[in-house]
Amino acid sequence: MTPPAKSCSDKVKGALIQHWTVPDKKRPAEQDAAEKYLLTVCIFGKYMTLPWIKFKRWYLLVTSFLVQFCIGAISSWSVLNNPIDVLIYGKKDKGMAVNAFYISVGMLGTTTAIMGPWLERNGPRAGMVLGTTSFLIGCVISCISLHAKSIVGLYIGYGLFCGFGNGICYTSPVSALQKWFPDYRGAAAGFAVSGFGVGSVVWAKAYLPIIAWTSVPDLFIVTGCVMGVILYSCAVCLRNPPSSFHVGGLNIHGEVVYETQEESFQRGENVSIRSSLRYESATNLAAQEEEDPSTNDSKAQVKKLTLIQSMTSPDFICMCIMFFGNQLYGLIVLSKLSTMSTTLFGKTAAQGADIVSINGLFSFVGRLVFPLISDVIVRVFNVEHAFARKCLFLYGVISQIVIIAIIPTLIRNDSYTVFAVLVFLLTLSYGGGLGTIPCFLTDMFGAFNIGTLHGLILWAWSLGGVVGGLVFNAKYTAAIKNGATPEDAYIDSIYKILIVVCVTGSFVFMVRTNPRDRFEKGYHHSLFGKRVISIKPKDTTVNQNGSMQNEV
């Protein structure tokens, strides 16, 4: 008897489940042998290797920095708003060019969310090649569109194609580094995204001279070629570790394994660091459920959650909302900072570019230092890894709320210097959130889920850029048309953003980092070591018909 044909909805559901499931893919021995060397590429399933330089994981830090350096150009977009508006519309402050930034950020986040499972299945090298190719296509479309004075073409080229390419290129090295550096997850996350801040500094200073040398449209060809060479070169270095990889007494999941000094030397490292605090993940979930939930936190067992379990967990949902609040105002300021400097404080275009560059430096410091501080907190105070990351986010939310509340007063009083200092401090927290979130996710949900979950949470980041940015822009434009001054229009929107940041930022308290709370049956939540929420699970019983039913 033939099985009944699947309905269309069943096929769609099955395809979605298959896409969001990352199988434990075994690598061929040929790949492991080839990737022992730095210069190796795979062409139609065959590995071409130059056995000149042995691969070391430390090369990935430089590679990731360069990738993020190129993508960091997106944070310098505010320098291009006025030149593009003047080129297309004949006057600056038209407010149309900035929408390309919002679309690009939205596409970046959407891409990382959707392509995360694909990236885990195909590896960071394939992701880099696909992302770089899309980025270059976007640069060509943007150049042609600006020559034709088409803002829609710019939205398609830079917004969609460059946004797609940036999204894949952004998350490819981050996912790989979290697997290669289980002993330095915070530091690896910081290095992985710190180049983004440096890129925003350099490109903000480079855009105007390049425009003066060529033209606004040709800027995209020049920068596209430079970035394309760098990104394609970095793709050669990027790779995932073999399944047997372990370092510093830890495997890629952060589980304790035994490593001899001889193995450390074979890997080309003279120092093997073992963390004083680590998670012990049991492979047998049934055995985990039988464990006494009162196990000491520093040795509490952490379940290996599937990707779908991780995506639907209340902790991940709260992290997305929390991250949205942490990034919202920073994204809006990044896209409008140069314009705010010239419009609200009467500064020149060059001075506007200067503040964008300095702001990018603070973004770099935040991305690098915040994850490092969380690693220090773990080792010095002997606390849970995830709890240390949570403390940094708590600081970021509180500091941003205070700064956002003060900024309207500074605008009214024309206090440019204090405004700039507070924006720099706010950007420090903004960058710190982006730098800390990869290791936070890895500590919470495991190394195999980091690519997809990081992509999904970047979608929350992009949502802040698209929704927050477009709404901010629309409200500002409407207020100006109704006769409001630029100062009043900005201040009114800033107060509305403050309310959103307060509400979404409060979700940081709902992220459970205590393994006892997370993995004990039911729902439990503790604050300061005491349980404040404890909901017992439903008991599952079998009725007389043999079907399952739940009883409270």
Automatic annotation (TrEMBL):
Pfam families: MFS_1. The lineage of its organism: Eukaryota, Sar, Stramenopiles, Oomycota, Peronosporomycetes. Keywords: Membrane, Transmembrane, Transmembrane helix. InterPro entries: MFS, MFS_trans_sf, Proton-linked_MCT. This is Major facilitator superfamily (MFS) profile domain-containing protein. Signal peptide: none annotated. It comes from Peronospora effusa. It comes from the Eukaryota. The chain crosses the membrane at residues 58-80, 100-119, 126-148, 154-177, 189-213, 219-238, 316-335, 355-380, 392-411, 417-441, 453-474, 494-511. SUPFAM superfamilies: MFS general substrate transporter. One of its GO terms (molecular function) is transmembrane transporter activity.
